[in-house]
Amino acid sequence: MTPIVPCVRRGLVAGSPRWEAAGVVHLRFSTLVQAPTTVAFDVARALGRPWRAPLQEVESRRPHRDVYAGGPGPRVVHTREFTATGAGTRVEELVDWDAGPLDQVVLRRRVVRAMRAHLDGYAAAAATRALDVVQVVGAAVVRGDRVLVAQRRGGAFDGRWEFPGGKVERGEHDLDALVRECQEELGVRVEPGAFVGEVVLDARIGGGPPGTSTMRVWAAGLVSGEPAAREHADLRWVGAGELAALDWIPADRPLLPAVRALLG
């Protein structure tokens, strides 16, 4: 991920608490973490929640969502959702608790104070942990209504298709790595565009445990040069209707719906 000083952009989406007739108060917090979804999720789980009473797990879908709930005292339900973006992982946290009329203002202040302190520490910890995780970037190079695909040569996925790309070097920005990989693999200069998506990689990447690294893919346009298969067996420009018929490596196939959308 981007090698910058760990930071957090946070916000209370609603300027004031919202409660229903049953006395349930809702607060929502949004945090942008400089880490892939896997790291953001794992660090959040390791740090727990900033509540004195332990909560029980209700739902966990790594690396997208988890829900914890419990008491004693006012019942708390704490939901977190993790979404990949081009700038990192956006973490949305919704805190619901049961509160009587006399507790609403006092509890709100306590919850906001606890969450803000918690999110500062969490964002810094996740960004630091991300520096030790090897990431992979890919480019959906688009020209008109077609996208460039590359056929693997050698290895376990010999003959299967993928989007060009490779590993991000330590201290390298994701988009700088994408531009460098296209130059090395294809002999072209590209301009990164919209973020396409992120996929969790099951394999060990850079010696890390399986399921920690992700592949993050951006659309890209050709700036100069004509693609050449320097490291691949073959290259093709294909349209949206041809993508499904190719024999894709497992990591790239989940990105096909988003790539079709790029092609119109």
From TrEMBL:
Q: Name one GO biological process term.
A: DNA replication
Catalyzed reaction equations: 8-oxo-dGTP + H2O = 8-oxo-dGMP + diphosphate + H(+)
UniProt-recorded Gene Ontology molecular function terms: 8-oxo-7,8-dihydrodeoxyguanosine triphosphate pyrophosphatase activity; 8-oxo-7,8-dihydroguanosine triphosphate pyrophosphatase activity; 8-oxo-dGDP phosphatase activity; 8-oxo-GDP phosphatase activity; metal ion binding
Q: Which UniProt keywords apply?
A: DNA damage, DNA repair, DNA replication, Hydrolase, Magnesium, Metal-binding, Mutator protein
The Nudix hydrolase domain is annotated at 132-263
User: What's the short name of a Pfam family annotated to this entry?
Assistant: NUDIX
Q: What cofactors does the UniProt entry give for this protein?
A: Mg(2+)
Q: Which InterPro entries match?
A: MutT-like, Nudix_hydrolase, NUDIX_hydrolase-like_dom_sf, NUDIX_hydrolase_dom
Identify the EC number(s): 3.6.1.55
- Reading the lineage from the top rank, the first entry is Bacteria
Which family, according to UniProt?
A: Belongs to the Nudix hydrolase family.
Q: What is this protein called?
A: 8-oxo-dGTP diphosphatase
To which species is this protein native? Goekera deserti
